Amino acid sequence: MTGLSAELVVDGRAPQTPVLAPSGRSICYVLAPTSRAGDHLDTELWLADVDGGGAARRVTSDIATESRPRWSTDSDTLFFLSDRAQRGTAQLYRLTLADGTVTVQTGWRAGITDHLPLADRRLLALLAEDEPTEEDERRARDRDDAIVAGEREPHARLRLLDLTTGRVSTPDVFGDRHVVEVRQRPDGGPLAVLTQASADNDYGPRTGRLHLFDQSTGTAEDLGPVAADARSLAWWPAEDGWHLGYLALTPPGLHAGTAVFDLALGSRVLRNRTAGLSMCPTELCQTDAGALVVFADGLNTALSRLGPAGLTILSRPTGRLDGLTATATGENIAALTGSRYQPANVHLGPPAGPLRKITDTRPELDGIALGLQEPLAYRAADGLALDGLLVLPVGKTASEGPFPLVTIVHGGPYDRYADRCQLSWSPSGQWLAAAGYAVFLPNPRGGQGHGHQFAARVAGRVGQEEWTDILTGIDLLIARGVADPDRLGIAGWSHGGFMSAWAVGQTNRFRAALVGAGVTDWGMLAATGENGQFEAALGGSQGWSGIGPHPHDAVSPVSFTGRIRTTVLILHGAEDPNVPLGQAVYLHRALRHFGVEHEFVIYPREGHAIRERRHQLDVLHRSRAWFDRFLRP
């Protein structure tokens, strides 16, 4: 066995967005590098025979960002997006399987954002912003480019591409609304179209509406509003006619578990088909026989079929399952899944399982020593059932403790740790286990996998019970002799970064902390973050909610920096729109004011996630060195 290096972590390649041909004979997937070396992410399209008779082969050869592969309804043609002609501007391309030729189908100057081949093989639906006008180009040349809020906002519009003539038309049916998603009825009927009033992440997801568009007549019907953050459209037939489903947040809050909503088009009756379940739906997949639903189910996954009588559990895969795709009949599926010690690969099989692995994109990890990973189940202080994971130092068992323990809190908070391989560029279980640490990966309340009520418990109360959930888990590991109480660290990214900053303001038990892209002031985040209203739901108030103190002040880490005695490493992307850099600057200045030992690192050109290879390497080396300095003297 050899040891794990930072280069092994960041230099890998991962499959993305698998798509099965409707016939079931072939599958296409995107192969993407874990890190980016230059200004653009160079991805590839790969094709494999489902019967396993032929090895996977790369079907695009240009250096470009290739994405969103989609099959024609006859399975003979593969359409995809690529920026090979102009980096950063994607166009639609067509791969003909019979002879392997690739031809460009669009030259839309604004670029194409998404596409959907239709049952009428002469037509293809496009989502694209308006092309720049002569006035737009003049303003750009003259630098007369003052941005006026609400004016000339980019909106993706539904367009139809005639493949025989190359002509792109834009149906004038949705006004100035931003089109998010399109899905055609399986029998070749109308298109379900999901729109928002704006592409802005703060406002748009709260303004969704559902429409039916008849491409033969060019007319549309408004089906009414949808719940916040709607996505993942899927049709299915029933005795009372066609049903149209989607995922969305459970009303009325903006932080709550997702649900499957079912609209019976004949009666216009809308139902929440997952109310009361202790699982959270994450994906819908349309088939001729009905919709398949992926559920986050604690540390694992449940795959179900949604029919007239309700949900039927088909299988319970271990760990996490993403990117579900199916044949037209639904007899076979493919998805991205892995194991505790193997990263996700494309797996294929019947919905009831088992699924067989058909790709091996990380062979360089074979033979690398990894830490033993164990699921945890315990009760919160108020009796709520919780779960999480423990990753032990490489080569060690729990009986050999106590070990220095680093708790890594997940982001979201509507996310979760699944029982899968914990290895990534951000501080992860296996990266720290390779250096001799035990790592606790908790799933406190507010996260995914335990139903709507579990997720909704943190709205307006971040840092309260979810913090004691985490602390209870740490105390359990200390009592079991796994964790050394004098060598505790805490880390996290995004909401996990918030929890790390919050923790060190509540207790001095931790000797070192890492705050990655973390929230430090909820009022400022509601005012400046790209998801402002959703953040206000978590923090409990906004800065304009009258004269303070405000509820969000009581759950903001900056309010407690005077108590901090723990050393803190702050890492943040300079161009983060989700949690703007000002959040990190605020914490840095507060810690400097109180004389708290800390280090503040800004990564240029980076957003909420760190993408550049050298920056990912720096995160890995710097974070481990930080904990080594204070937890392993």
Automatic annotation (TrEMBL):
SUPFAM superfamilies assigned: alpha/beta-Hydrolases, DPP6 N-terminal domain-like
Pfam families assigned: PD40, Peptidase_S9
TM spans (from-to): none
Domain of life: Bacteria
Biological process terms in GO annotation: proteolysis
GO molecular function: aminopeptidase activity; serine-type endopeptidase activity
Keywords annotated in UniProt: Aminopeptidase, Hydrolase, Protease, Serine protease
Peptidase S9 prolyl oligopeptidase catalytic domain span: 430-631
InterPro entries membership: 6-blade_b-propeller_TolB-like, AB_hydrolase_fold, Peptidase_S9_cat, WD40
Name of the protein described by the UniProt record: Dipeptidyl aminopeptidase/acylaminoacyl peptidase
Lineage: Bacteria, Bacillati, Actinomycetota, Actinomycetes, Micromonosporales
